[in-house]
Amino acid sequence: MSRLVVVSNRVAPIKAGKVAAGGLAVGVYDALRQAGGIWFGWSGDVSSTPQTSTETVGNITYVTMGLTKQDYDQYYRGFSNATLWPIFHYRIDLARYNRQEYEGYRRVNAMLAEKLKPLLKPDDIIWIHDYHLIPFAEACRQLGIRNRIGFFLHIPFPPPEILTVIPPHNELLKTLCFYDLIGFQTETDRLAFQDYMTREVRGILESDGSLTAYGQNFRAGVYPIGVVPDEIQDLAESYKGRTKPMRRTTDVSRKKIISVDRLDYSKGLVERFMAYQAFLERYPEHRRAVEFIQIAPTSRSDVKTYQAIRQQLESQAGHINGWLSDLDWTPLHYLNKSHDRRALMGLFRQADIGFVTPLRDGMNLVAKEFVASQDPEDPGVLVLSRFAGAARELTSALIINPYDCIGMAEALDRAMRMSLTERKDRYEHMMRAIRAADLDAWRDNFLRDLRAFSSRPRAEVPS
Ligand code: ADQ
User: Fold this and answer.
1) What's the pLDDT at 11?
2) Which of 124, 212, 220, 416 is deepest in the core (most CB within 10 A)?
């Protein structure tokens, strides 16, 4: 089997031979362990003299490099997170465009491709992850790299009307055509991409399903990312013995609503807090019978829009608790701390309602993790935004529209009252979907399709 080379913005930290984070990191790590290869990306360090570090553990070599302050500002904080992230999440209002930042983004992609080149063998297959690295394949092709290269977009792909707000959208999208395979989370995302390619740049949808645009032929497919349900079950169950800390701060006789997100405007936290407040206003009978635990560690806190949302949430949380708290009841527990995976899965299992309400989300693994953590004999209820990729598969969740405050409050009320039979029916249906599209399926299907390509003939490499 040919080696696998994974390139992602960050390389997951390895502790005692195991990756520390969940989701993407675990999926990628397992693929690398099977095939052997390289995991290549930014180390997270910013300095005036960036260093490259190489560490081999078993059959995986981790190659990470630092960035200069200018690279970080332009590539990461600027174009990736202040232009692409908001626009790909349909938030034109929060996006900015700065030409230097875009140039920095292209420059860092070219620099990374150059550093990767000497490490490659001719039959390696290369798997690039996410919006930070859209132009990576084009940069590779310009260096004469002819390996198979695939790209997976973890976030949504917006409709052309939104995408074209990015001034160099044409140039940016042209770089995507140098991949052999482009993977999306949902059919909606794939169709939006196809729409751009066929309507905006007059590409051709070929009879074999591939696309031809800008003189390149490539494929686009749907590969919904999943979880490892058995591992989550084990983690959630094994946390049982350690429920005390949660019980001391919260009352076990009360029902618990739980939400876990990175603190990001795409996750709909402001709307969620408003819905919880509306729920307590409209259904006073649930007061004192419920507690809402929101875990949301800060992320990208040096990007302005993230500072603003943090302030707003603090004010909303203060308002809800100031209005209703009693000496023996706190309606909202708002925690900015990160939690380890076992604790999170354990908390999911103890909760009665998972409240997952992004305004737009590529997939949202928390929704799948919440379901997979439940006790099959007494499962909790998932309330899920229709705008999470996960809503395509978890159709037995209580599906809500996060822009409908009262609708969300009604869904919480319904979840509070749902019978055990209905909860079990919905849970079993969702578990079937989660097992059918688990993390192994995501990785294996993508890599199978990418391996099916052959290396590019010399003529297809741009000069
Ligand atoms: P994220 O936006 O980070 O990921 P999500 O898929 O929900 O969103 O979470 C990724 C992982 O981080 C999950 O395993 C979750 O448990 C963990 N996590 C989230 N909040 C946490 C917290 N407060 N403390 C500890 N761990 C936490 C991006 C896209 C998503 C897509 C994923 C994977 O934005 O749409 O589902 O990539 O493709």
Assistant:
1) 87
2) 220
Catalytic residue check, 328: no
Closest ligand 1 atom to residue 23 Cα is 14
- Choose the catalytic residue: 154, 261, 264, 286: 154
Whose CA is closest to 65, among 125, 111, 127?
A: 111
Residue type at position 319: H
Scanning the structure block, which residue is given the tokens 């603090």? 314
| Two structure tokens written together for 234 | 């084990």
Return the H-helix or E-strand segment holding 6: strand 4-10
ipTM above 0.90, yes or no: yes
Whether 154 is catalytic: yes
CB atoms within 10 A of CB 136: 25
Give distance in angstroms: CA of 365 to centre of ligand 1.
6
CA distance 149 to 179: 5
What residue owns the CA closest to ligand 1's atom 12? Answer: 22
Separation of alpha carbons 373 and 350, rounded Å? 9
Task: Please name the residue whose Cα sits nearest to atom 1 of ligand 1.
Answer: 364
d(CA 320, CA 309): 16
- Ligand 1 is surrounded, with C-beta below 6 A, by 22-24, 154-155, 225, 260-262, 295-297, 338-339, 344, 361-366, 369
Interacting residues of 422 by C-beta distance below 8 A, sequence separation 6+: none
Pocket test for ligand 1, best of 239, 259, 364 (most atoms within 8 A of CB): 364
Contact between 145 and 5 (Cβ < 8 Å): no
- 55: helix, coil or strand? strand
Q: What is the CA radius of gyration of the chain?
A: 23
User: Which candidate, 185, 187, 222, 226, places its Cα nearest to that of 430?
Assistant: 226
Residue identifier of the C-alpha nearest atom 19 of ligand 1: 261
- 134 neighbors 5 (Cβ within 8 angstroms): no
DSSP label of 74: I
Contact by Cβ (8 Å): 335, 345: no
Lookup: tokens for 128: 């690039």
- The yes-or-no verdict on residue 459 having pLDDT over 50 is no
Report the separation in Å between the CA atom of 129 and the middle of ligand 1, taken as the mean of its atom positions: 15
CA-wise closest residue to 3 among 27, 38, 53: 38
Position 19 confidence tier, pLDDT thresholds 50, 70, 90: low
Cβ atoms of residues 101 and 79 within 8 Å: yes
